[in-house]
From TrEMBL:
It comes from the Bacteria. This is Dihydrodipicolinate synthase family protein. The active site is at residues 144, 169. Pyruvate binds at residue 56.
Amino acid sequence: MSSVAFEAQRAALADVVAIPVTPFAEDGAVDRDAHRALVRRLIDGGITTLTPNGNTGEFYALTPEERRLVTELTVDEAGDRAVILVGVGHDVPTAVASARHARELGAQMVMVHQPVHPYVSQRGWVDYHRAIAESVPELGVVPYIRNAQLHGERLAELADDCPNVIGVKYAVPDASRFAAFARDAGLERFVWVAGLAEPYAPSYFSAGATGFTSGLVNVAPAVSLNMIEALRSGDYPAAMKVWEQIRRFEELRAANGSADNVTVVKEALASLGLCRREVRPPSRPLPEDERAEVAAIAAGWSI
């Protein structure tokens, strides 16, 4: 498939890439109705790129059956109103099976979570992603990079073998390293998605990103859209106004090594009556004394 065939996918990455939460019912199972309602709310709010089974969706706390269910619910609810970028990962056979499942359902892309292994070599990183990308040549493939040691040349090498590797979710918290990595890999060759969401989006856009991921978007789609509109027009003062608006919410998510990253989002949604607050271990529910602050922030966005 030629690169031209991936133009729609590339355009979808140069946007707010929403990472939906996975709501749980009282019995602890995935709440199907709430999940559909949250996906619908995102799309109705103007969001057109969704990543089921991302980290805000508690990917690593879901069973294989639940991950398939989340993909199915998202694709079915979105229909043709959004582009779906399905998170896949774990061992290679599991990731390949997930990618093929996504393809069967009609998803357009997969995001490959960083290899979960204590020993990741540069060449092994290429081999891991190549095995997944080659299994679904019709789908756009987006590596999720959190490894500060990885060299941009390795990504270029991967894409030489796999032309369906079209974008990158870059999530190393270092704008200078991102700028260098993107240029070593090929700035124009890939769509660069700021993988650390709104707090890093202005600095990463200044270095070449054209999209950003978001968990906050679950709560307030309009806020995330305001930021990308400002960034697209090069209006950094306006983007930083949004940055100031979301700063405390994102600081709460990032505290203690992002211990409450998902918890804060679900707490905000719970305060709005949109889903239950429960998260799965190793995350934890927000302590009672911190809930009011999150609710106040969510209410202040007046959505």
